[in-house]
Amino acid sequence: MTNIEHLNELLKENKKDTFLLYALALEHVKINDFLKAKNIFQQLIIEDPNYLATYFQYGNLLAQIGDLELAEVIFKKGIDIATTQNKIKTRQELEQALFLLD
Length: 102
Prior knowledge:
Layout: H1 3-13, H2 18-30, H3 34-47, H4 53-64, H5 68-84, H6 88-101
Helix pairs in contact: 1-2, 2-3, 3-4, 4-5, 4-6, 5-6
């Protein structure tokens, strides 16, 4: 059983488990299934907008596929959330990722 199959099995029990969805998106990135990963990251932002890890990975995916405008939006939103949550290290990582877009 692949990691994706295993995660999908686990998600059958709890379709909105943030961590499982996040892990599933990362697995899709690993196999270059960027559309599926993008869709999952979008779902995560809608269902759990305060799950901070999503913003860094989703922004990086968008930059990788050439959608720099949306990557900028996502990084900035993550920076705002990291600031609100007082997650200084994460905010700095997002700021660096945003800087590297230019």
